[in-house]
Amino acid sequence: MRIFIVLFLFPALLSAQKIADMFTLSSAGFEDSVIREYPGKSDSELFLATKRWADNIISNSSDAISREIDDQYLEYKVFVPQAFSIEDNGRTFTWDAMFDLAFKFKDENIRFDVEIVELSSPDAPTFQIVGGMNDWAFYAENNQPYPLTSDARKIMEEIVNDFIRGVSAYVNRDAEIPPKK
């Protein structure tokens, strides 16, 4: 009986994901989902508004789309050039960011999921989310944030939270764009 319960509950535990009000960059990346409710909007309306947002905001959105299920799911690879810069010892380093941005539409809601695919630069050191003493990273190996990269971490959070604000503006064309927090 115990084995049955464990086998039955284990997949549910694996699929459980935390929900947040906005994206926060942790040592595990953007690990939470953000869900926004749009009362009175059908899955189809939410899907089309998100596609309109992508067509106007994402360069080459038709090439950037990686998965699409009509009225249910959209996923894009989003490239953000010069996403953030860090000044260190009189030198400024700039990195580009590539995100995997997914939207799931269900019951007047959009679930937003973001993953950092790559942080790159042609002339800056390699950057990672978690790194050692000699690495460029947002967090140390003990999961403590590096002070030098705290502004860059906030910029990355603003970028991905702006995705939500932008989509919301397209869904609610008559509504005001929510202010940044």
TrEMBL record:
Entry annotated with the keyword Signal: yes
Keywords of the record: Signal
Domain of life: Bacteria
Signal peptide positions (record): 1-20
Protein name as it appears in the record: DUF4468 domain-containing protein
